[in-house]
Amino acid sequence: MAKATFLEAIRQAQYEEMSRDERVFIMGEDIICNVFGTTTGFVDAFGTERVRDTPISENGFIGAAGGAAMVGMRPIVDATISSFLYPAMDQIMSIIAKSRYIYGGQARLPLVIRSCLFYGNSNAAQHSDRNYSMFMNVPGLKIMVPSNAYDMKGMLKAAVRDDDPVLCFEDSTCWMSKADLPDDPDFLIPLGKGDIKREGNDVSIIAIGGAVPLALKAANDLARDGISAEVVDPRSLVPLDKELILRSVRKTGRAITVDPAHQTCSAGSEIAALIAERAFDALRGPVLRVATADTHLPFSPAIEKALYPSPERIVAAARQLVGIRQPENA
Amino acid sequence: MNGPDLQRSLQLFERMLLIRRMEERLGDLGKAGELPGNVHLYIGQEAVATGVCAHLDDSDWVASTHRGHGHFLAKGGDPRAMAAELMGKETGICHGKGGSMHVADVSKGILGANGIVGGGVGLAVGAALGAQLDGEGRVAVVFFGDGASSQGVISEALNIAALWKLPLLLVCENNGFSQFSPYETVNAGDIWRRAEPFGMPGALVDGNDVHAVWRVVGEAVARARSGEGATLIEARTYRWRTHVESEESFLAAPYRTQEEVESWKQRDPISRLEEFLVSEDLEKDVAAIRARVEGVTESAITDALNDPLPPVSRAFEDMFANG
């Protein structure tokens, strides 16, 4: 057990799974150059057959990953930044998500498509997408958005062993966060199991990816006001640990979803709808959503930062909710 | 490469005839309102699928198109399971969940017909990559049309397949039409010539001559199996029937002349092979094949018609392999 970063967790997960199973291989743009440090030492360990640089042809190589998976390989695709998934939408949405179903269960597509959520650093609208929500609207894709290095390692290893296509979204605001990473080669966190990151009684804050550390900071601030916030991290959005979320909301009676994605049709919105449908009787106020405004991300830091969820916006939402019950304290 | 021997020619004839007769029956059923959805028939193009798949084993891979019945049957797919799939039956090869545009039998290396034009290309590149990593000498074939040749994924696939020397055949069936638009109105240049800039062998072949297809593909498959990489083959052929069987109900104007269709029917790949076989004194064998194909077709269609429909619960199955 040693402290390591989120990026190092990705490297370790890939390294361990490639060591364990020779059907696992990795490909993407600039893998050998090792841009973000997630393939350090891979060529020496596994050779260039299993560590492949691809042309800048997302449609081609993500499609090829689907085909290789269908014939028994277990590819990991590093698509770099999540906006670069769009040239391959045809492959992801029409082929990878649907092949198993349309062939009546004959096919398995065990592949992992990794990409990072590269926002908050003046990269402007085309590089800053937090786009996992749009993939939730097509059944057939598993989707993980871990919020810390520990979860990342265990979930990515589980994703590589999963027999279905998994989209792994890596929140770059978490890249340098550190955690103790288990050395156990079979350390796995199954997809579909959320985690209570902090227990509380007054309000449930269901936060996604990079919003989890923000929610934890907000919970600290709220504690000083005497508000006990529970922070729920779904960790994967498909499958979604609905029972964990509903159990928390039934306990606290209040819910806020926090999602770095644009608000409309976001994962946070879907979770809000789930709560309204299935825990309405337990709610003592509306389900509030803290998300990114439905505008593109501008370049200038002066106007970009304010658009994302922040501890301040989460605190304000919690105060509003608790205030509905206790207007005298608002 | 020499042409196929007479025994092989009889096999090719039987397979082509099976595709033809199955599709004629299915086309009739569609016209009679017995098939749900849309059907894209392969009639006239049988020599391509047949000449290609004759070189493949069950362990080799093919990815197909929306016009995929011929590829399915040529690669050894079961006629009854295909017919039942087109009828949306429980016994369909995909339990009625894919239909005409998704017939697949992964156990026979058929990675499926595909409703997206060019949709099989990525799959086949990946299958070839898997075959290369396996190192067991398998090959992958992708069939695509002249319409799909305009999809960007083709250029990406040519580059990747050439760069990595993948055991892949890219087989373009140029049937003259991108849906309803004649080839020359939407395509620049010759498709087979696109191989050369990538350093890949390219070949043009008469897609209505099964012997010619067989020879060209035999060489390409041998190259792929021996690690020499991919080949692009353009087979010129013609689609006798509609783009989609329902088109007569919505097309505002014809997009080709009856004379043109008739002129291609004069070059029927099945009649050409039959004439050759008769000239080789194999008339009796031809007659026996005709009778056998009629029997197989009839029982496939009849059995499929009598098969049960799937229960609604089927709709919720096969989303995921794990959970």
Could you characterize what this model shows?
Chain A: Keywords: Oxidoreductase, Pyruvate, Thiamine pyrophosphate. Chain A: Its cofactor is thiamine diphosphate. Chain A: This is Pyruvate dehydrogenase E1 component beta subunit. Chain A: GO terms for molecular function: oxidoreductase activity. Chain A: InterPro entries: THDP-binding, Transketo_C/PFOR_II, Transketolase-like_Pyr-bd, Transketolase_C. Chain A is an alpha/beta fold. Chain A folds into 2 domains: 2-181, Thiamin diphosphate (ThDP)-binding fold, Pyr/PP domains (Rossmann fold); 195-322, Rossmann fold, CATH 3.40.50. Chain A contains 12 helices and 14 strands. In chain A, helix 1 runs parallel beside helix 7, helix 3 (58-70) runs parallel beside helix 4 and helix 9 (242-252) packs across helix 10. The longest helix of chain A is centred in the N-terminal third of the chain and has 15 residues, at 6-20. Chain A is globular and about 60 Å long. Chain A starts with a strand and ends in a 5-residue tail after the last helix. Residues 324-330 of chain A have low confidence and may be disordered. Chain B is α/β, with parallel strands linked by helices and 323 residues long. Chain B has a single domain, classed as Rossmann fold (3-Layer(aba) Sandwich), CATH 3.40.50. Chain B is built from 11 helices and 7 strands. Chain B has helices spanning 6-31, 46-53, 69-74, 79-86, 119-134, 152-163, 183-186, 210-225, 258-265, 269-279, 283-306; strands spanning 61-63, 140-145, 168-174, 177-178, 181-182, 202-206, 231-236. In chain B, the strands form 2 sheets. A 5-stranded parallel beta sheet of chain B has the order 1-2-3-7-6, sandwiched between helices. In chain B, helix 1 (6-31) packs parallel to helix 11 (283-306), helix 2 packs parallel to helix 8 (210-225) and helix 5 (119-134) packs parallel to helix 6. The longest helix of chain B has 26 residues, at 6-31. Chain B starts with 5 loop residues before the first helix and ends in a 17-residue tail after the last helix. The mean pLDDT of chain B is 96. The chains are: A alpha/beta (330), B alpha/beta (323).
